Amino acid sequence: MYACKRQALRRALAAEGLRRDRTFSVLDGGCGQGQLARFYQKEFPASSYVGLDISERAITHLRQSMSGAEWYVANLSALQDSEVGARTFDVVQSFEVLHLLLDDEAWRQALAGLADRMAANGVLLVTAALPDQTEERSTYLRYRSRAQWNDAFVSLGLRIAAQRAMYYWLPSGGPANKYFRYALTRFESVPLYLVDRAALTLGVPRPSSVGLDSRTHLLTLRRA
What we know:
By secondary structure, the chain is α/β, with parallel strands linked by helices. It has helices at residues 2-15, 35-43, 56-65, 104-116, 146-155, 178-185, 190-202, and strands spanning 25-29, 48-53, 70-73, 89-94, 118-128, 158-165, 217-223. The two termini are 31 Å apart.
């Protein structure tokens, strides 16, 4: 899963002309265990990275285990009150976090707060499944419709500059057919990952059984 995220992120950064030797700043909203921080440290060593997460435990661990980055406890829906303050960044990102906010106003405030942290020529990278209709399939996940996302972008003065599919069916665990699934997973995750990458690259139509997580896109947003 993280290999897929890194691949999509790598392509998004390359499209912005951000190379290994470029100096740029990154704000990661919902950094979790720091997986993408390690990506930046390895592949973009000249970049500076700030990670935010609502989990104090996660941030405490990251401060103790990862040097060369800044870590802050923050609620994305109240970034104006966080230690980041009014700082701006060349790359602002939030991977697979915003659909965890069930309250629409909290979601919009989080999106607005991230947009406010963008430098003048910066980009905002967010993930979204973009279904035709908003779906709340559990007590902790809300997949907002493409129309709802677009309305929020317009109100915040943002536009979609690029849209990249991240998965084919990997988050759904593979094909619905139990025999095909068994054949792909009996040797752990590598065959499933390779078939996922190939199907995505070739543009194979997804079966209707594929879940919304598998339809996640990485959106590159710029100021309108």
